[in-house]
Amino acid sequence: MKTFKTKFKLIFLPFLLIAIGFILLYSLLNWALFIQSNFLSLKEDIPTFWLPFGLACVPVLLWLRPRIKLLHFKNDNGSFACQLIAVLAIAAPTIVAQMYLDTATGKLTKLDNIAQYRQAEKTKYYSLNTYFIDKSNAGVFSTAVVSGKNNENLTYSIYIALPIFANAADTAKDECSYWLGKRYLQRIKNNLGKEEKNAIFKTFARESQNEFDTTDFQKFVYLDRIGNTEEHDKFNTAIKKSKLVRYQDPVVFTSVNEPFENRNGKKFGWIFKSLGIGALVFLGLLCCIPLKDPNITKFSKEKETGTSDVKELFNFLIPQKDFFATAIIIDINILVYLAMVFCGLGVVSFQAIDLLHWGGNYGPYTTNGQWWRLVTNIFLHGGLMHIFANMAGLLFVGVFLEPLLGRARYFTIYLATGIIASCTSIWWHAAIVSVGASGAIFGLYGFFLALLLFKVYAQQLNKAFLASTLLFIGYNLVVGLTGGIDNAAHIGGLVSGFLIGLAMAPALKRKVIADEEAYTDENTYSDQ
Fold first, then answer.
1. DSSP H or E segment with residue 28
2. CA 256 from centroid of its chain's CA atoms
3. Cα–Cα distance between 475 and 493 in angstroms, integer?
4. What is the SS3 string spanning 183-221?
5. Do residues 477 and 487 lie in contact, with contact meaning Cβ atoms separated by under 8 Å?
6. Tens digit of each residue's pLDDT (9 = 90 or more) over 464-486
7. Could you tell me the pTM of the whole model?
8. Secondary structure (DSSP) of 59-105
9. Distance in angstroms (rounded) separating the CA atoms of residues 466 and 100
10. Going from the N-terminus, what domains does the chain have, and what CATH number goes with each?
11. How far apart are CA 31 and CA 307, in angstroms?
């Protein structure tokens, strides 16, 4: 009971204070910078979803992590898991709070007709006295987006933009700046065959058309203006496909058929529910983990602990003596991904057309003189999970290969196997946009596998990582067979890296033996 009270006082109460303070402070900043003043123009999902996750790590690392270190974990992974749970427990209610803030602070502006929009106060919600929704001049845009860690899901979407006029007579103007957006979607498994996918999409398109034809879009209570989101971008594309090709700064709304007072739903209550659930999970975790010192009653912290912790966390981004090229490669990949995000192309996933414009590998373009795509596609990724998985794999193999090879040879092998992987991709797939560092990373794993088979590393390392490397390679190749993954690039990189490794393994093994002998002789001399 005494140790529970100690953990409650030294760890849980500070966690609660940090969580509540973070929710309040972040909500205030979000309201001031993004909702109220629009001081920073970002995609709305960034301040609503992604920044809460990223920024929640800061107070956990600076103030909570030193206290979590008072607990006795069997290994460092336990400490990391505890910190991750704390971050999630803080981020989840913060996200719900931002969703509530967005709807609760939105005002309802009453307009006689849509033509008054430019002169009225810019708010989130609008009601119209007179209007005409023109179904005959609607614009349509369809997409197919893969998602999931291994691209296991495929989502079909049909975006329809309908012109909003003050009255039916305005359709003769052949131009419109105000649109009503309607989205139809269906999610399926991405491992289905091409013919089966086509059949499902045709059925989905036919059902969407029937629903569109029978829907009376004239009936709604009020309109919800779509902000700076990926959804707005999709509707903009649909607008361009409408017959009304003349428009200025299109404004897109969605219709709401419920009373304005119900706009918040149950979001406010879920702020406290999600905070309570996260707090209970964190408290339950504390109950299961003993203190290092059962007699501790007061928390004390060295001055440099927080700073060194943060520095240690981001060490993988900082080029160092035996971790130089790997850090540079990771930094370039992350910077390219962030550049695409801040250009408004998405966060979770990017469209194939955008990846093509940024340098994706595409057979008809690459073989027609744009050979630079064999290199640029290695530093592009299809979305958040894609880059996260690839950089984690690169980080692991880079720790073992770069110190042995040196930065120049390591980077050369990375680039060479990546280019070979790109060539294999366009040879196997005639017209598919391919991106990702995985071909080059598979090249490094193929090289690493060759060194393990030649027992270049110490015996303990060979035993520990030979099985895990084979499992990693086998798992990813099998997953690639389910569809949505460029297995041709994986195989091309793997085989080329393995062959290069076989050629270099004998010389590298002699180098390792010589270094070990030199190290032994030096230590023997020092002992004497």
1. helix 13-30
2. 30
3. 16
4. EEEEEEECCCCHHHHHHHHHHHHHHHHHHHHHCCCCCCC
5. yes
6. 566 666 666 666 666 555 445 55
7. 0.61
8. HIIIIIHHHHTTB--SSHHHHHHHHHHHHHHHHHHHHHHHHHHHHHT
9. 50
10. 2-105+268-313 (no CATH), 132-217+220-256 (no CATH), 323-527 (1.20.1540.10)
11. 30
